[in-house]
């Protein structure tokens, strides 16, 4: 197998979708929040908490979907905290977000350590299994490459398309976008910028929680600290790369995952000639590169990071 | 009901903010301790004994506070000029790596009195350069430095891992991934016999005082504060924002790099990928609790170190997971933000 042959293996493309899934959830969540004008650096911690609470729910006998729901609710609660501090109180979105990340992840570790005794091998659950779709999964190549995923992956793709539609074509999406561009104009239109911002942050945080839960309920079957590995920060970079548009976020997440899946296989080809850490750096370096290229070109929501206070300009 | 900015905040209120924030987060964490099935007051008593109950405990707490003073200072200096340096963790590691590489047998062949200052300077330069990269990206390309500094932390940790499994690997460590040790001459002198406490502590305290002096008594200090408070007005008054931000980045990244070198040369003697139990990120909490005041950083670093060292004792005695310290510290960042708001604004009906 040489460097180009890798692209012809269906396994690569199946891995791309799998690796992209938590990034799709995370990017959509951060995007929704930022579109309403709130930067959400709580994402890394919320993904960690979602991974933990989703796993713990299933470990204690819950259904896998209940686990995913628990992660969404847990994410939403931290999102509500972030929203209350940054929207009505107008606190620094940077520092509050980092505080949420530190708080959510340390609470996740605390609850995990409290509920699961220390042991050599982490306990496991039965994770989501591949969902076979009639006809499509039986297609040659495509069946294996695209239609052999677990249910949350399909859900992530559908959510990306759904969010793209809602933001671009519905009154709700228009309301969210106006609030992110000019909250005073939104208020003049009879909208409530504070309520809309809180709603967008909470909904976005629920998506982040689900992205974390995908790691423990589908990609792996156990929880361990630091497993999110900066996926939240990569998602924040992907939002810029996607110019705050959900359909581009889907593309961006897939592109990143392609590089990640490719480097994993490339490692096996080049063997020990190149230190494996260089390959592991690629997603982070790519995120930085994406920011460099897109930062000036992307259309930033005009009121991003600007707190809204009634009657103040 | 609305918020109205106070024209000036009384000193009592400035001091009450962190105290109130810490009290509230201890109370909230008390709920978690109760859920964990431990008596809350005894737990906090154990925490206090764990941090201050013996000579060893006190020196351990001070040893733990040393890198936190420096990373806290790194965040305080940067945040005051609205340079969002979240990369202190990475800067800590490049400083540590520089000290280990240049301080080993194969490194600089210098006598002790010259070796230690040379290593500290090298580490500060390494940390500063690492922060200049994202700063230049912000100035040239308009890239928000929060995300780039965060992402660089992961890159640097992988780089450290690559170095200590590759060129800097200690061949005598039984295959364990750790760097070559620094020579005995490069180790910082002990402050107290039969303890791990080293002269890094007075270095940190001295730097905090120096920073306070620079910020409050020099033109550069005034300009950097002005740049943070209102960049446009500062620029209009003839302050070069680029120059100020570059100086602030050198100071902030340099101090964080110094923290890494001091941890290697004062405590461990070599670099591993778990050298820092997130000193860099915790430094942000230290700085915020101190209201970004350099002298305050010394006090809040001591508080955070108390929580971490004390929680280990509490955990051993009562079985409460020691992650409770992380919960208390992170909660106090959030409560501090609210307390700062309440002390800077008054509520009007």
From TrEMBL, chain A:
Organism domain of life: Bacteria
TM region(s), chain numbering: 38-58, 65-85, 91-112, 124-142, 154-174, 194-217, 278-295
Pfam families: BPD_transp_2
CDD domains: TM_PBP1_transp_TpRbsC_like
Keyword Ligase recorded: no
InterPro entries: ABC_transp_permease
One GO cellular component term: plasma membrane
Protein's membrane topology: Multi-pass membrane protein
Major location category of this protein: membrane
GO molecular function, one term: transmembrane transporter activity
Key words, A-Z: Cell membrane, Membrane, Transmembrane, Transmembrane helix
Location within or outside the cell: Cell membrane
PANTHER family: ABC TRANSPORTER PERMEASE PROTEIN, SUGAR ABC TRANSPORTER INTEGRAL MEMBRANE PROTEIN-RELATED
Name of the protein this chain belongs to: ABC transporter permease
Organism: Telmatospirillum siberiense
UniProtKB/TrEMBL annotation, chain B:
Compartments in which it is found: Cell membrane
Residue stretches spanning the membrane: 12-41, 114-134, 146-164, 235-259, 279-311, 323-342
UniProt key word Transmembrane helix: yes
Location, primary (coarse class): membrane
Signal peptide range: none
Protein name: ABC transporter permease
Molecular function in Gene Ontology: transmembrane transporter activity
């Amino acid at each position: 197998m040489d460097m180009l042959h890798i692209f012809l293996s269906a396994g690569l493309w199946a891995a791309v979708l799998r690796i992209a899934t938590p990034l799709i959830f995370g990017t959509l969540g951060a995007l929704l929040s930022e579109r309403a004008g709130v930067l959400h650096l709580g994402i890394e911690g919320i993904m960690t908490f979602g991974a933990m609470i989703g796993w713990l729910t299933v470990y204690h006998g819950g259904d896998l979907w209940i686990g995913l729901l628990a992660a969404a609710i847990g994410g939403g609660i931290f999102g509500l905290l972030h929203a209350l501090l940054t929207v009505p109180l107008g606190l620094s979105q940077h520092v509050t977000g980092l505080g949420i990340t530190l708080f959510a992840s340390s609470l996740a570790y605390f609850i995990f350590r409290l509920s699961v005794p220390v042991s050599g091998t982490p306990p496991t659950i039965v994770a989501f299994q591949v969902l076979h779709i009639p006809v499509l999964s039986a297609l040659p190549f495509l069946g294996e490459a695209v239609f052999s995923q677990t249910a949350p992956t399909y859900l992530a793709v559908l959510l990306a398309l759904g969010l793209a539609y809602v933001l671009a074509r519905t009154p709700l999406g228009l309301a969210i976008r106006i609030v992110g561009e000019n909250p005073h104009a939104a208020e003049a239109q009879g909208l409530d910028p504070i309520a809309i911002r809180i709603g967008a942050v909470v909904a976005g945080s629920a998506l982040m929680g689900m992205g974390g839960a995908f790691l423990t309920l589908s990609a792996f079957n156990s929880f361990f600290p630091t497993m999110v590995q900066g996926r939240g920060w990569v998602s924040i970079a992907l939002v810029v790369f996607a110019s705050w548009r959900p359909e581009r976020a889907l593309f961006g997440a897939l592109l990143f995952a392609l590089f990640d899946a490719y480097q994993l296989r490339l490692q096996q080809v080049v063997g020990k000639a190149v230190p494996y850490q260089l390959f592991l750096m690629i997603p982070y370096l790519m995120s930085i590169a994406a920011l460099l290229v897109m930062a000036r070109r992307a259309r930033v929501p005009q009121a991003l990071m600007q707190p809204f206070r009634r009657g103040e300009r | 009901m609305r918020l109205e900015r106070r024209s000036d905040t009384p000193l009592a209120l400035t001091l009450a903010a962190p105290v109130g924030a810490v009290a509230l987060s201890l109370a909230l964490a008390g709920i978690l301790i109760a859920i964990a099935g431990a008596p809350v007051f005894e737990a906090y008593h154990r925490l206090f004994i764990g941090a201050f109950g013996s000579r060893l405990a006190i020196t351990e707490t001070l040893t733990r506070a040393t890198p936190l003073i420096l990373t806290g200072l790194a965040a305080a200096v940067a945040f005051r000029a609205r340079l969002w340096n979240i990369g202190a963790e990475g800067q800590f590691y490049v400083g540590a790596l520089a000290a280990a590489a240049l301080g080993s047998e194969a490194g600089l062949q210098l006598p002790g009195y010259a070796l230690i200052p040379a290593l500290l300077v090298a580490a500060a330069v390494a940390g500063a350069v690492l922060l200049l990269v994202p700063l230049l990206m912000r100035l040239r390309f308009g890239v928000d430095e929060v995300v780039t500094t965060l992402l660089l932390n992961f890159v640097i940790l992988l780089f450290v891992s690559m170095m200590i499994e590759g060129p800097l690997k200690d061949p005598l460590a039984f295959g364990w991934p750790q760097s070559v040790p620094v020579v005995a001459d490069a180790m910082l002198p002990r402050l107290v016999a039969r303890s791990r406490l080293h002269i890094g502590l007075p270095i940190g305290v001295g730097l905090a005082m120096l920073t306070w002096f620079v910020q409050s008594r020099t033109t550069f200090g005034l300009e950097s504060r002005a740049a943070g408070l209102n960049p446009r007005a500062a620029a209009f008054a003839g302050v070069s924002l680029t120059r100020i931000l570059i100086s602030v980045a050198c100071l902030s990244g340099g101090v964080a790099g110094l923290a890494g070198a001091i941890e290697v040369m004062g405590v461990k003697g070599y670099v591993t990928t778990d050298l820092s139990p997130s000193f860099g990120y915790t430094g942000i909490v230290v700085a915020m609790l101190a209201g970004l005041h350099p002298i305050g950083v010394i006090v809040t670093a001591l508080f955070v170190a108390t929580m971490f060292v004390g929680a280990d004792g509490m955990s051993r005695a009562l079985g409460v997971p020691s992650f409770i310290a992380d919960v208390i510290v992170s909660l106090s960042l959030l409560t501090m933000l609210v307390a700062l708001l309440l002390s800077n604004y008054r509520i009007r009906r």
